[in-house]
Design brief:
The protein is mainly alpha-helical and about 325 residues long. It has helices at about 15-30, 35, 40-65, 75-90, 95-115, 120-140, 160-185, 190-200, 200-205, 210-240, 245, 250-260, 270-285, 290-305, 310-320, and strands spanning about 10, 150, 240, 325-330. It is found in: Cell inner membrane.
């Protein structure tokens, strides 16, 4: 009697040509923008890049890792204060300080993770918010960085304004491209597959040999690094920081809104959601409280009738994932 065995081979789906081509076209145009664009649009691009990077990190943590946090503003604020402290107190150029601040923020995430990982589910979400508030209150009592009223970034004194704007813009563009590329590569790797397995079931993932604790810690630290990068970039561009602005829960609220609108657990989600958020913010923010009510109302409608966001809606209509991380199983 002959026994036939079937081997399963798992391969990644190829990246579609159209999105890659559009991305290259966008990048080629964006690189030259300082030479023909207005200063307002350069500054606007930097600000929206910070929202995008922050939203990508929240999507990685919650959408792919299942760790729903409402305290990522802790790392956003730390990134801003690190770049301020290095610039004002140590004389480090903010251009160099931005990536250094992100690294320092990731280091700070290690001890904070010991507190956060003691909690699960809803308690984890509330716990991260409490941690962020503790960090905010701590920073507000450090007079050397401005205390509760904050302070200005003085390290750019003597630097030509046009040069500063151009360099900040190019750094933001580099960070955006690197964020998308690295997260896409990670999610298409075996480690990305393990992370999604943890999101679906920690017990099942552990039974398949996944080191759940180490993977969750790695993603938590990476998300903190990205949030710190966004914070450092934002406040280096805006030249002033205060605890209430840096550690506001609105940062995480806006990130959740962006990801919900675009699509939770999809690479395209934060891209689409950030564009929608920018349109709403740009044209409706002058309406004050009604603007915030409108954001909340739209988020509720999306969660009720389009839970997979605009990216999911496009996928259902076209049958295509523009930045796919899916794998194909073939028998041989």
């Amino acid at each position: 009697m002959t026994v036939h065995t079937q081997h399963i081979n798992m391969t990644r789906t190829p990246l579609p040509i159209l999105p890659i081509s559009l991305g290259v076209l966008f990048l080629g145009t964006a690189i030259t923008m300082p030479f023909w664009g207005q200063a307002y649009w350069l500054h606007e691009f930097v600000n929206i890049s910070c929202f995008f990077i922050f939203a990508m990190m929240w999507n990685l943590l919650a959408g792919y890792g299942g760790m729903v946090s409402v305290g990522q503003q802790a790392f956003f604020g730390l990134g801003g204060y690190f770049v301020l402290a290095m610039g004002n107190l140590a004389g480090v150029s903010p251009f160099i300080g931005i990536p250094l601040a992100a690294i320092l923020t990731a280091i700070m995430a290690l001890p904070l993770s010991k507190l956060a990982f003691r909690l699960n589910g809803g308690y984890f979400a509330i716990g991260t918010w409490v941690i962020a508030e503790v960090v905010r209150l701590t920073v507000a009592n450090i007079s050397i960085v401005g205390g509760g009223s904050g302070t200005s970034l003085t390290a750019f004194r003597g630097v030509d304004r046009v040069f500063r704007q151009h360099m900040t813009y190019w750094i933001a563009l580099t960070c955006v491209v690197a964020t998308v590329a690295l997260i896409l590569l990670f999610l298409r790797s075996k480690q990305g597959l393990a992370l999604q397995a943890i999101r679906d079931s920690e017990v099942a993932a552990s039974s398949q040999g996944v080191d759940v604790i180490r993977m969750k810690l790695a993603v938590y630290v990476v998300a903190a690094l990205g949030c710190g990068l966004a914070g450092a970039l934002y406040f280096a561009s805006n030249l002033r920081i205060s605890p209430d602005a840096a550690f506001s829960v609105n940062w995480t609220a806006f990130a959740i809104f962006i990801v919900m609108i675009g699509g939770v657990g999809r690479i395209e989600g934060p891209i689409i959601g950030t564009f929608v958020f920018w349109l709403i913010n740009h044209y409706l923010s002058d309406y004050g409280t009604w603007y915030l009510i409108g954001l909340g109302g739209l988020a509720i409608v999306m969660s009720l009738y389009m839970k997979d966001g605009l990216a999911g809606f496009i996928h259902r209509k076209t049958g295509k994932d523009f930045l796919s991380i899916k794998r194909i199983y073939r028998s041989k």
